Amino acid sequence: MARKLAFDKTLFGVGIGLTLFGLVMIYSASAVIALERFGNAHLFLVKQAIAAALGIGGMIVAMHVDYRRLLKRPVVYFGILASTVLLIVALASDRAHQVHRWIVLGPVQIQPSEIGKLALILFLAYLMARKEARVNDVVGTIIPCAVVVGQLALLVYLQPDLGTAAIYVLLAIVLLFLAGLRWRYLVFSGGACALAIGLLILQAPYRVRRILSFMNPDDDPLGAGFQVRQSILAVASGGLHGQGVGESRQKLFFLPEPHTDFVFSVISEELGLIGAAAVIVAFGVLFWRGVVAAAGAPDRGGYYLGMGITIWLVVQAMLNMAVTLGLMPTKGIPLPFLSYGGSSLVVSLCALGVLLNISQHSS
Predict the structure, then answer these.
(1) In whole angstroms, what is the distance from residue 152 CA to residue 84 CA?
(2) How far is CA 254 from the centre of its chain?
(3) In the chain, how long is the greatest CA-to-CA distance?
């Protein structure tokens, strides 16, 4: 009988714990809004609970699928192709709030950019594992990587979603760095991306307003600076112990969309510094165990795949929390496992399942 491999129980516990905690905080943050908009205080909770069930199911399946199967060329290329097609379909769909980020299938909304994150990491891990010795080969490695990353990032940017597009590029640069890309290429790539992002910000007036409001929120307290000011107020009013679960005042139509990108603000207000610190520690543990799993992988593909997933989840969490604390301009980046959003939760849990499978094979 084949020996059953043990998975990282700490990593598993952190993922499940964050997901269950997220359900509690989403209900607390969304009940009033859901009742006002839809006449059902439980609406967002029920939808997120369904996504959690699907995601946990996907995580369990991923735990039992050898990650090396996911790094086969047909699987990797299919993931990129499917993500590209889904992003194009989303662009061709009807607009919601002047964006093309979702594919609507009856009551179900699919956000292809979330699927694209995992597909991109699979591609990068596949490429880095096979081209590690030639990572500085411009024609054989850098250009193919730039083409795939640029293709997906461009489609996401056109939705428009500059924040997620930037995450795509950041993941590629970090994994190339881990693979040993020369500093001159890293500096050139980073500089070119920074210049491109700056130009894209300048050509969109609403992005310029966000930057200006970030620099001085009080210049437009009821406009561009409103969201970040309300978020900071929520965090500050939480104090050490918080107002108590369900007792947030800012979620009462002061803080826009408190159950999505600004759920960390509600956590800070209701559970205080202690609750906010607990969330930060949880992501710190996820980073620690993820790096341990990746470093112990028996092959380079497992290493790059594990590091890619870990860096994605933790860096995205850091960016989200930085926005809620007023340390970065506002951008629609969800907090993994905690923000409302079915696609984000399902894909994050499936990615965690892949990481858990890598941990089973780690030395």
Answers:
(1) 6
(2) 25
(3) 69
* Distant-in-sequence, close-in-space partners of 307: CB < 8 Å, separation ≥ 6: 175, 178, 290, 291, 294
N- to C-terminal Cα separation, the chain: 21
What are 182's two structure tokens?
């020369």
CA distance 210 to 197: 14
Q: Which two tokens stand for residue 275?
A: 């609750």
Domain edges within the chain: 21-64+223-363, 71-203
Computed over every residue of the chain, the mean pLDDT equals: 92
286 close to 310: Cβ distance less than 8 angstroms: yes
Task: Report the amino acid identity of residue 145.
Answer: C
Token pair, residue 201, equals: 């910000």
C-alpha 83/C-alpha 157 separation (Å) is: 14
User: How far is Cα 231 from Cα 314, in angstroms, rounded to an integer?
Assistant: 21
* H or E segment and range at residue 104: strand 103-105
CB of 340 closer than 8 Å to CB of 48: yes
Angle at Cα 244 formed by Cα 239 and Cα 250, nearest 5°? Answer: 70
Task: Copy the structure tokens of residue 9.
Answer: 């129980």
Residues facing 104 on adjacent strands: 109
Per-residue pLDDT tens for 171-227? 999 999 999 999 999 999 889 988 988 888 888 887 888 787 777 777 767 776 788
In the structure encoding, which two tokens stand for residue 76, read together?
Answer: 């990797």
Question: With a threshold of 0.90, does the pTM exceed it?
Answer: yes
Residue type, 160: P
User: Do residues 332 and 261 make contact, with C-beta atoms less than 8 angstroms apart?
Assistant: yes
pLDDT for 1 beyond 50:
no
Total count of residues recorded for the chain? 363
